[in-house]
Amino acid sequence: MDDKWGMLESTNEDREKIWKKNRTFAGDVWFRFRHKPTAIAGLILILVLLVFAFAGPLFTHYSYSDQNLDVVNIPPVMRVYEAPDGQACFYVTQALKVLRVNNDGTLDTQLSKLREDYTAGVAIFDYDGTEVGLSYFVTPYEMVDPETMEAYPARTVLNRSYLFGTDSLGRDILTRLMYGTRVSLMVAFIAVIVNMVIGILFGGISGYAGGMVDTVMMRIVDIISTIPLTLYVILIMVIMGSGLQSIIVALGTTYWVGMARVVRGQVLSLKNQEFVMAAKTIGSSTKTILLQHLVPNSMGSILVTVTMLIPSAIFMEAFLGYLGIGLQPPLASLGTMCNDATANLRTCPYQLFIPAIVICLIMFGFNFIGDGLRDALDPKLKK
Q1: Phi and psi dihedrals of 82, rounded to 5?
Q2: What is the pTM of this model?
Q3: Alpha-carbon dihedral sign for residues 256, 258, 264, 270
Q4: Exposure of 251 by Cβ count < 10 A (0-12 exposed, 13-18 middle, 19+ buried)?
Q5: CA angle at residue 101 from 100 to 104, to 5 degrees?
Q6: Which domains does the chain have, with CATH numbers?
Q7: Taking all residues of the chain, what is their mean pLDDT, rounded to a whole number?
């Protein structure tokens, strides 16, 4: 056995060498975060929505305010009738207007009405010198041959001109969805940044000072948290007027109470630790201890709270827009799009479902990120 087995040579350097790769705290957090599939899925989803909201309008041919009353309430998937010559198709709108649709699914011109035969219940339209009919008495309606009253063959095609359809004013829903997602994300991020600044300073000072200062400051937080946000927004809109700035001010001046409570709790649990005592011993100022020692050690809970505040702020903005006290037309947000779609919910449900789905995706994305950060920043889960 001596020719097959033997002692490996080793030196003192090999014995003292750390074979496992050393990771910093940030690297360890990223390592645990990326090994959580839901967190990575949420991060990718949010990045895709950010690209969709901020880069998407550069590639569209429409604006959020462009109106075309000839293409009102056109769905993403159309039921069209084939033309007699087979070169195009016809689509009948809810207003009983006939649009020419090319074979590739793009919308063309609107056909002009020649006459209407009330006895036969057929409206006659002109198409390149050929008369085509629209029967009103067939549920819901059909394109027919005026002479034989035989219906033209029908099929479904995708709307290539307006991928997500149009709304009640003929505006492109896809373009408005891009701008609406951008506005909702901007409102959420600006409100969260304001909440972080106010909440961290207010909660940190309250927790570090303690005593009567802490009591008075927390009673202020309790008073603010008891005011209904909807009433608060209405009062701000009376003073500042309707618009985006009113929503940002309302969310930025009320949502920080939750952040303040979280920071206060973390500071109360850390201010009697040894590293704080050591900082006091060497003569560090209160500002240095608070901003360079206590707040950085509380960033785990702060980041998790921030990721939970962002979807909450987006949902509140959408709720205010749905109530009609948010952005004013023609500006679009996800909430205002849902509000505009309620009038046509039975006939055009896609106008409500599309922005509602985007709101749900944003909620899922940030909640997954928050859940991943909570696990990644928890030292008890470190393996």
Answers
A1: -75, 140
A2: 0.81
A3: negative
A4: buried
A5: 155
A6: 77-158 (no CATH), 173-381 (1.10.3720.10)
A7: 83
